[in-house]
Write a structure and sequence with these properties.
WD40_repeat_dom_sf; WD40/YVTN_repeat-like_dom_sf; repeat; 4-stranded antiparallel β-sheet; alpha+beta; 135 residues; 3 helices; 8 strands; Thrombin, subunit H; elongated; WD and tetratricopeptide repeats protein 1; 2 domains
């Protein structure tokens, strides 16, 4: 009986403690038994260089990839289809891609070895802003 009460109290604590929830999520998410169950579902072809980064949009319906070929590609992973290939204008390998929140998944940020962060409009296929970092 005491063990059941303790379990209930632990569950209740997790329900109201975001720190505990986050710790539990991180432990389960990166646990070796979880990783071992992952499999190769498909291969998306489009980049001419190695892919360095991937990013899902908020609802998991789109995937963005950044590559050594200096392009970012937006994919429909369920249809296994390339939706847009963005010529980013970077002069170094792309190591970060991110869908811009609240943009309706129409904007993508890329960060690269050239020390630039670029904002791209996926619909118009244009780079709309470039920011430079310290050297």
């Amino acid at each position: 009986m005491a063990a059941n009460i303790r379990q209930l109290l632990d569950m209740r604590q997790r329900a109201v403690d975001p720190v505990s929830d986050r710790r539990l999520f991180c432990k389960a998410h990166a646990h070796s038994s979880m990783v071992e169950r992952l499999g190769h579902a498909t291969e998306l072809e489009g980049h001419r260089g190695c892919v360095n980064c991937l990013e899902w949009n908020s609802d998991g319906s789109l995937l963005a990839s950044g590559s050594d070929d200096l392009t970012a590609i937006v994919w429909d992973p369920l249809a296994k289809k390339q939706l847009a290939s963005l010529p980013t204008g970077h002069t170094g390998n792309i190591f970060s891609v991110k869908f811009v929140p609240f943009s309706g998944d129409n904007q993508l940020l890329t960060g690269a070895e050239d020390k630039e962060v670029r904002l791209h409009d996926i619909t118009s296929m244009e780079t709309t802003r470039v920011s430079y970092s310290c050297t």
